[in-house]
Amino acid sequence: MAKRKVTPDTQAEDTQDLVAKIKHNANKALEHGHDNALAPPPGITADPPSEAVTASTLSETNISAKTGAAAYPGSNETIGTLVRVRADASAQRLTTNHGVPIGDNQNSLKAGLRGPALLEDFILREKVTHFDHERIPERIVHARGSAAHGIFTAYDELSEFTRAAPFTEKGKVTPVFVRFSTVAGERGSVDTARDIRGFAVKFYTDEGNWDLVGNNIPVFFIQDAMKFPDLVHAVKPEPHNGMPQAGSAHDTFWDFVSLMPESTHTLMWAMSDRGIPRSYRMMQGFGVHTFRLVNAQGVSHFVKFHWKPLLGTHSLVWDEAAKIQGADNDFHRRDLWDAIEAGEYPEWELGLQIFTEEQADGFSFDVLDSTKIVPEELIPVRPVGRMVLNRNPDNFFAETEQVAFCTAHVVPGIDFSNDPLLAGRIHSYVDTQISRLGGPNFHEIPINSPIAPVHNNQRDGMHRQTVHRGKVAYEPNSLGGGCPFQTGEMGFVSFPQRVSEDKVRGKPEKFADHYTQATLFWESQTDWEKDHIVGGFRFELSKVTVPAIRERMLSSLVNVSKDLAKEVAKGLGLSVPKAMPKALSEKVDPEVTQSPALSLTALPGTGEVRTRKVAILLADGIEGDSIARLHAMLIKVGAVPVLIGPQLGAVKAGNKQALEAKATLENSPGVLFDALILPDGEAGVEVLAAQKQTNEFIANQYNHGKTILAIGASSKLLVSAGAVKSASGTKMADGLFMAAGKDLEKVGASFIDALSKHRHPLRGGA
């Protein structure tokens, strides 16, 4: 029988057959409990229909004296041609780099199911250490970022809960440096990709540096640091072709998360508009993990950290985000820089959810699980201080690129919980900086050095800056008078949590609830936010080339909401599959089934329009007086009007107004602006109507729900762009205004009020 010719189509068919054999991750149910921890199951495998399925490329059969033949199935040759560096893992067991079989690749070694992770876990350390050193010199994740200096001011002293330096007295000011970032993309990627955003704050306290390293989303994809390299490998560009950049819409990511149902809650956040924020200045920040606050008496409370922007939480819509990628790759970087340069300093309020271990034990979820939130209805967020970013860096590389954030950097009064994901980060971040910044002395790079004095017996190493006097480099000593000396109880002392458990790899039973809070998030959204979540899933899954992966993900979404799964399936041309088996068979009775705080609409902001960019279209022949009056009104309230014409330079306007276009329709498309004003004047309107970019400019503003004002004759431009059917009336839809010159002040005030709402989501395609 002739051997079947392998083509991309046959490879895709065989890949579909292979993936379809693994309907779900049946081992998830076996990851929980003491007995399962002692006897972890082997990994789930399936035999490929052909060798082509597991190949990186169909061209591997093309042989040269250098390349040699394709890798033999299951082999790892180490001598000869380049075949020696190819390996195939078919039917092979998982091992360490030294060939030791790994019984459990899901969990780090802990002292009890809820106990601390143990330093002796050589498997975790090898895996994470190798991962930390996989890229030089840019960060493996969070490579693309933007940062600023600022201050944090405490509202009150919090000695009841903590002795942490920033909270020791009312009004205390602590310098900070904050870096915002995307996660998946490389340093040269785009700003507006759908992604989680990093939100890392370095507090330069008088008792050392405290790094609050968080994200703009309060939950994460995985529960244990053992899976972090796997997650990032899955979301990064696929290794056989290096695509796609800065995006999760591809096979390997959705293959992984569809087999890790614990990721579902975070997927809901990422597929919502939270994944495409309007600005770094308009997104929340979260510490993600449960930490501890410890007071001077050694009393501990659990704590969750929340940053809330005073400008409110606002996001882009997907069509807008995708178009901005082509118009301005640095959209978020530029927005932050320009606002600070203009003196419009972004501000956030820090809030704490403080609760006892006894309270935590009574929750239906486990606070050590980083895929869970503590709903604000259970524990309200207590405002404790305000952060203002008021200075841009002098040098991007020296500060923004070289800043090193580490979750291990805490100060007395702040300590860790036994969150197994946090435990791995405590090790990983320090290890990464050693590799990326050239050795163990990265703390001496100016942006990383504390304002508190540093004295210890650490010496030498690459790039050492300090020149120590004397001959003492040890403790205890007498030659140096016993100095530097340990500070005892005044220094950092770990909270003495009692531990008396078996050494096991596993998860507590509550960690097995993968869907309750994902459903909570869904049920807490407005109808238009739900539509956007559906659209996010549809777009991402439509980019997946293997149908079985789409079907598997849909079967998981059925457990979140049948309505969600139905709408996503409709866009993919699929039927709704049966629900994926849950790892937790017992029904969970959640304390909260709807939380308004989870909607973007919960934080509308101060209602000001400061820093909002308003496009004003110009052309020879417009009526200039009304534009000048509106321009003045916008400047007065702190908005940023931008005059845009067919070309740069002076515009011949009526009434001898001196107007000058600072941008053009070609270099400044409508997606870069928060609102639009169209001018009066028949001659000028005719010139704008003849420009091919005008209709697109207006259509994007309309479809993205932006506020639009058309004065007099320009109402016909709205008709031409399809925004309205008739050039009459003064308010045609939410955020859409038409006015005559005599109504300008009144309608202008209404326009500014509508601008403060950021977007009108029930209009157009928004």
From TrEMBL:
| Ranges where the Catalase core domain occurs | 95-483
Known EC number: 1.11.1.6
Mention one GO biological process in which this protein takes part, according to its record: hydrogen peroxide catabolic process
Positions bound to heme? R139, R179, F228, R425, Y429, R436
UniProt keyword terms in alphabetical order:
Heme, Hydrogen peroxide, Iron, Metal-binding, Oxidoreductase, Peroxidase
Active site located where? H142, N215
Q: Does the keyword Oxidoreductase apply?
A: yes
Presence of the UniProt keyword Metal-binding in the record? yes
Q: Name one Pfam family in it.
A: Catalase_C
Listed SMART domains: Catalase
Q: Which reaction does it catalyse?
A: 2 H2O2 = O2 + 2 H2O
Its Gene Ontology cellular component terms are: cytosol
Q: Which GO molecular function annotations are given, in alphabetical order? A: catalase activity; heme binding; metal ion binding
Family note: Belongs to the catalase family. HPII subfamily.
| Role of this protein | Decomposes hydrogen peroxide into water and oxygen; serves to protect cells from the toxic effects of hydrogen peroxide.
PANTHER family under this entry? CATALASE (PTHR42821), CATALASE-B (PTHR42821:SF1)
The protein depicted here goes by the name: Catalase
